[in-house]
Task: inverse folding
């Protein structure tokens, strides 16, 4: 049975900053100190394990990650960024050490393979969600409040933060029920994207090939391109019985289909409980769309038909959920049991990620 995190994050707890994938890109060079200042303002103890000099040494990066896990003051470990250097670190991590010190760790995009591999090899809950350099007030590309509040509410298992959200956003963002009830419903804001006030944020929509076929399984979440690379590095995840959520950024449907075919060669995705193309999107700050097909229901239906044929008609396929590179980003736990309500596109967490 997968190990849950001892308790949610609380003010005063230690948050470790790490850089297992390397240093921040030059355009984000000031984000390290901005993130530290913001965490202190929020009331957390900052433990800085970031390697600025000599970060090219993968062994050092893996050792600092493990040092963060074993530090008794640390409750959460938040990498500053992703990057291709993360593949060098994965074989060097002592997953037994991590398993003996289960803590919150969160990442997305290319860093999704780190949290996914830790979940599998250390048999512990991890989290898929945005990075801090996009969540602090001085971020160069600050996420919307829906995303920021959903992040902190998941890690703190909290219900606050409706102020500043539109009525539609407030209804759909992640907030823990004030009373301890199960399951916890996570609503899908992309079920009706026309209600999203900012037209640029209408970058996704919900669709299922069978609205009567709800599913249940363990959550596995990652960026498709990174997962393919992970498989080709010989570290393919076990997808049996999983609800596999996949996202991509700035790719045509044809490119996504080719990547999915490569992923399927390694993992035989017909064994999954469901495949969710959570967010096949492009950047929302462009003046004109490069891939308008991603917002075309007809072309997405044809894409899903092609994927269904590849997998022999199983498992169930879903499209559109606020996870990944889309404008509205929820933070979700990897490894816990969840259910998708096909009619609405909502996700039910059948258990808490915390003990």
Result:
């Amino acid at each position: 049975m997968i190990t849950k995190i001892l308790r949610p994050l609380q003010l005063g707890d230690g948050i470790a900053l790490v850089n297992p994938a390397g240093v921040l890109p030059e355009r984000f060079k000031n984000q390290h100190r901005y993130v530290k200042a913001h965490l202190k303002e929020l009331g957390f103890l900052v433990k800085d394990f970031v390697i600025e000099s000599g970060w090219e040494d993968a062994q050092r990066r893996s050792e600092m990650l493990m040092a963060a896990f074993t530090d008794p003051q640390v409750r959460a470990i938040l990498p500053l960024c992703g990057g291709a250097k993360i593949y060098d670190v994965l074989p060097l991590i002592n997953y037994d050490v991590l398993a003996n010190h289960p803590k919150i760790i969160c990442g997305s995009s290319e860093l999704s393979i780190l949290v996914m591999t830790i979940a599998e090899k250390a048999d512990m809950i991890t989290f898929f969600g945005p990075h801090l350099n996009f969540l602090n007030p001085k971020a160069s590309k600050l996420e919307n409040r829906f995303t920021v509040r959903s992040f902190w509410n998941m890690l703190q298992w909290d219900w606050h933060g409706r102020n500043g959200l539109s009525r539609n956003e407030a209804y759909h963002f992640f907030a823990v029920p004030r009373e301890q009830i199960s399951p916890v419903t996570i609503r899908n804001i992309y079920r009706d994207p026309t209600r999203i006030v900012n037209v640029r944020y209408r970058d996704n929509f919900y669709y299922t090939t069978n609205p009567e076929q709800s599913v249940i399984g363990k959550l596995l979440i990652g960026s498709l391109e990174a997962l393919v690379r992970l498989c080709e590095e010989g570290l393919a995840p076990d997808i049996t019985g999983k609800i596999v959520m996949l996202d991509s950024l700035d790719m045509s449907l044809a490119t996504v289909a080719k990547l999915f075919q490569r992923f399927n060669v390694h993992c035989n995705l017909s064994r999954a409980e469901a495949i969710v193309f959570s967010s096949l999107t492009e950047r929302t700050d462009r003046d004109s769309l490069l891939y308008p097909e991603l917002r075309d229901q007809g072309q997405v239906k044809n894409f899903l038909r092609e994927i269904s044929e590849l997998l022999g008609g199983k498992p169930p396929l879903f499209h559109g959920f606020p996870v990944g590179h889309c404008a509205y980003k929820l933070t979700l736990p990897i490894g816990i049991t969840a259910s998708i309500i096909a009619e609405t596109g909502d996700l039910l967490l059948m258990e808490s990620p915390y003990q």
User: Anything to note?
Assistant: The chain has two domains: 14-142, 167-349. The mean pLDDT is 95.
